[in-house]
Amino acid sequence: MVPRIQVYLVVIFIQVLVAAAWTNPSDFNAMQALRGEWKNTPPSWVGPDPCGMRWDGITCINYRIVSIMCASFGLSGQLPADIGSLSELQILSLNSNKFIGEIPSSIGTLPKLLWLDIGENRLTGRIPVSNESASGLDMLVQTNHFHFGNNQLSGEIPSQLFSTNMSLFHLLLENNLLNGSIPATLGLVQSLELVRLDRNSLSGPVPQNLSKLSNVQDLYLSNNNLGGPLPDLTGMMSLSYLDMSNNTFDTSDVPTWFSTLQSLTTLVMENTTLSGNVSDKLFSLPQLQTVRLRNNRLNGTLLNGTLNIGSSPSTELQLVDFQNNSIQFFTEKPGGYNFQIILVDDPYCQRSTSSYCILPLPANSSNSIPSNCSTPRCSEDQVPSPNCQCAYPYTGTLFFRAPSFSDLSNRSNYVSLQQSLMSSFKHLPVDSVSLSNPSKNLDEYLTLSLQVFPSGQDYFNWTGISAIAFVFSNQIFISPPSFGPYYFIANSYQNFPGTPSSSHKKSRVITGAKVCGSVLLFLSLAAGGHAFRQKGRAEIAASQIDPFASWDPSKNSGGIPQLGARNFSFEEVKKYTNNFSETNGIGSGGYGKVYRGTLPTGQLVAIKRAQQGSMQGALEFKNEIELLSRVHHKNIVGLVGFCLDQGEEMLVYEYIPNGTLKESLSGKSGIRLDWMRRLRIALGAARGIQYLHVLADPPIIHRDIKSNNVLLDERLNAKVGDFGLSKPMGSTYRTHVTTQVKGTMGYMDPEYYMTNQLTEKSDVYGFGVLMLEIVTAKAPIVKGKYIVREVKQAMDVTKDLYNLHQVIDPVIVSSASPRSLEKFLDLALRCTEEQGVSRPTMSEVVKEIESIMELAGLNPNAESASTSESYEGARKGYEHPYSDESLFIYSGAYTQFQVGA
């Protein structure tokens, strides 16, 4: 037995180390408990300082742990109650591991939690809610995501879990062991966009008030024991995907509300005892892709048992499946249809040899994406990538639910899908992806094996896996263009570098146990001084490899940036720009000059080079590096890297070829923007800002939303740029930040101007002004007239186009439907309400613009124009988007002209 004095000295030693650590003590204790409970933790999880020593998967701000992103780490063990001590935690992403046991109710004490993903584990027990002795998950009213699918959770879904003040977007409870009825309180959560309750043992009727969930786009209730009458979901006008298959609803005629859901893409009602006739209006829904109504008692569309799909079905339609129903006759359009129709096992097929009576052959499961070269010879445990590099890939399975990617024999589909996936991994250490083994599972989902290959080395580190897994989790229900919704189930990654074997760990424990009492005594006496000396040595060593070793916080530049972007040397940038040649110059401003550059990979970049005495300054330079390093979204300008070398400050962005929105609205770029294109640009910009507010870590207030900061790529997709004035939000994205007033006059929130209290609603105000600029093609302030005031004064809602004919840009009057234009103006004016509390959130703005696009007959998820070559008008000479023209920039107590702000 170890002498008591030695135990005492060990305790003293540990306490001294804890005192010297940088991580908040409460967070440190919680992480120690997690590390002690979990197995297979990353090798970096050593030492007493998770923040200072940068444990993989752990993100800190001001020495407080704000996110744990350890998806697919291969972790096992239980989720300890100590998680509840991480009071600043905003993201808890532990999906695709091997956790067992119950969900700790202490998670409910995390007031700032926005993202909770514990899916794809082996968790058991009930969903915890509050009682007299403990808090539960019902307290997480700010949380946007509950991802609990593919576990073994049991019991009823607690009615107490849901309330009107919740901010929940995604509720994922699929493939568990839940029973009982669907609680009616679910209908109170108006923010919901996706609900998955399928593959459980739920029973009883579906609550009628679910119809009030007008924002829900995907509803999965299949494979339960639900009964009673078929619910009327008329109010779910955003519904895109509906599956209530394999339940025991009362025998029912086909409801008429099916054909009223204008956003519907997929209707799956297999084995639901439906009978009678289907309205032929269903097949003409503008976005409909799939109708699967097999194994029912349907007679078709006419009383005599005839199926008549109509003369003008949706151009998006891919599959109509009436297998095993009561179809007697089928009326075919002359020339046939360009989509698949299945009538197998219907009476019609007893008299016909039509192709509709033959089940389609299964696709070739050996198909895979073609490689770019001959297969290299790799070691036994490595895999060749499409780019001929031997590596250890991150693997898993993609599950697709829509038929638009059902042609498994078409290799071009795989190439397009690969490109779509690669765009999701932009700025991540991914070399390539490989797709193989297409097949259909028991749920008729198309499945594909996916391999993601590392870039620059033959393995991923823990941080890389965490980032990639989070991208999949984040985009789990976003539909890639032309492929339909999908989700991803990952395999645990087994090839992290430097993971010690269990025998090695054991030998270290044995060696440690042999340390004599005298050494312990020495350590305890020397621990304090040693800890501080080690801290100093660590800082010196870090400074030697830190590109910001010479950073001077005293020059109003703030603390040293937290990096995530690539650090280029001056010589590299000089080479990429051909020695900063004039021919590569693409603009200039108060910040400095902008050059076009070409990386060795062939990627075009825009390099913003600061000049001596730049107005932007070190703080804005630092801001852009820090913020853009951790935001990755298709509607955000990507930061490729930076250069802080030889006295130079340079930012390296992705190259955006079609300039700013301001240049196109003014006619300077020669690109003609009709109403359709302006709506798509507005939606793209809104989605980018929504990402900053809701999903960035931490959430970000842009603080300078304007048309000069919305850039247009080669397909006129909008990208929000210029983060020099941006600020991370407070403890949650709804709390304010007290700050010196900065921004652009005309776009600036009057409430922020008066109070210095910056919130996300300040961005909403700027976006509202931007919307008015999109409609009028006029700057916010022209000859002393303010666009918001001018529109409000001239507006008359009783007249056509609100009596704004003299204000609206004539270019769009002929191409815009009056109602869509009016609703766009309504939304813009709500965004520019004087009080922030009266303005919508950016999530609500995105939803409303999507609805306006649908009202105008547009698909909000469709691609923009193919290339800039398709735009009317010859493009004229104009300055590059990274070179802003002079605008009034407000900063502090004075107004100045600032170029390139």
UniProtKB/TrEMBL annotation:
Signal peptide coordinates: 1-21
Classification via Pfam families: LRR_1, PK_Tyr_Ser-Thr
Record protein name field: non-specific serine/threonine protein kinase
Molecular function terms, GO-annotated: ATP binding; protein serine/threonine kinase activity
Lineage of origin: Eukaryota, Viridiplantae, Streptophyta, Embryophyta, Tracheophyta
Location of the Protein kinase domain: 580-853
UniProt EC number: 2.7.11.1
Source organism superkingdom: Eukaryota
Binding residues for ATP: K608
Alphabetically ordered keywords of this record: ATP-binding, Glycoprotein, Kinase, Leucine-rich repeat, Membrane, Nucleotide-binding, Receptor, Repeat, Serine/threonine-protein kinase, Signal, Transferase, Transmembrane, Transmembrane helix
Gene3D superfamilies for this protein: Phosphorylase Kinase, domain 1 (3.30.200.20), Ribonuclease Inhibitor (3.80.10.10), Transferase(Phosphotransferase) domain 1 (1.10.510.10)
Location(s) in or outside the cell: Membrane
Primary location class: membrane
Membrane-topology annotation of the record: Single-pass type I membrane protein
Transmembrane segments: none
Entry GO terms, CC: membrane
Enzymatic class: transferase
Keyword Transferase appears in the UniProt entry: yes
